[in-house]
Amino acid sequence: MTSTAEERQRHIVRTARTTGAVDVNTLATQLGVAKETVRRDLRALEDHGLVRRTHGGAYPVESAGFETTLAFRATSHVPEKRRVAAAAAELLGDAETVFVDEGFTPQLIAEALPRDRPLTVVTASLPVAGALAEAENTSVLLLGGRVRPGTLATVDHWTTKMLAGFVLDLAYIGANGISREHGLTTPDPAVSEVKAQAIRASRRTVFAGVHTKFGAVSFCRFAEIGALEAIVTSTLLPSSEAHRYSLLGPQVLRV
User: Fold this and answer.
1) How far is the C-alpha of 179 from the C-alpha of 83, rounded, in Å?
2) Is 135 exposed, middle or buried, given 0-12, 13-18 or 19+ CB atoms closer than 10 A?
């Protein structure tokens, strides 16, 4: 179908971003080329930080020019996200004031928080605020600001200024990518500012995310691995890799 490597690779990235993943066999058929050609294209795209290769395919990396929506995230790796969220909620300890980040996994953490004791939840996420608004014993503080359409979360100086006025016990943070070299990253500078401010405002920080986040690098760095008390992910992250992260400071839980 497509002749040049550049055209093929553009098609691969577009397909990955539309569907969430691509498969070597299907791409070879669609493009009318050998599987090895597709694998070579995927290697090139991975080198450019556009996709992450998996066994038999690849999925898109979120970047300054591409970010999945909350609606899309609510359909991918859901059982894994639920396990991770439940384990993260158990790290609450005696925290009474908690920041819950934007994103689908943090939303699941919010829903898993205990309802049997007083808790104040600060969030920039409209869905998190909505999920907890009527929860027993939970007081919700929604940060004001400009609402980003894809994630339904507030950003910009109003949001960070409000956050700067708090001292919080714990922050549950998400990210588009986490790597040992580049720390926690996200595509949008405005989102990065909110996350960085939440970490500064909190005594403890817990990162929760599925295995596909690891090794991925996005545009804006907002924290180093050493800033985290704990990382919660699933057993799909190899234990050897989890150990490498733990050497940088945080406790790493695989569930």
Assistant:
1) 21
2) middle
Q: Quote the CA–CA distance of 189 and 166 in Å, as a whole number.
A: 21
Phi-psi label, residue 223: left if phi above 0, alpha if psi -120 to 50, beta otherwise: beta
Q: Where are the alpha helices (DSSP H) in 153-215?
A: 157-164, 189-201
pTM, to two decimals:
0.82
Which residues are 231's β-sheet partners?
Answer: 207, 252
Hey, is 181 helix, strand or coil? coil
Characterize 150-171 residue by residue with b for buried, 16 or more Cβ atoms within 10 angstroms of its Cβ, and e for exposed.
ebbbbbbeebbebbeebebbbb
Pairing of strands 153-155, 146-148: antiparallel
pLDDT one-digit tens code per residue, 37-83: 999 999 999 888 888 888 899 888 776 667 777 777 776 788 999 99
Rounded distance between C-alpha atoms, residue 229 and residue 253, angstroms: 11
pLDDT digits over 148-174, tens only?
998 999 999 999 999 999 999 999 999
- What DSSP string runs through 200-235? HHEEEEEEE--GGGBT---SEEEE-GGG-SEEEE-T
- Tokens 């934007």 belong to 102
Q: Which region holds residue 122: left if phi is over 0, alpha if psi is between -120 and 50, else beta?
A: beta
Give the DSSP H/E element, type plus range, for residue 58: strand 57-60
Query: Cβ distance 204 to 171 under 8 Å?
Result: yes
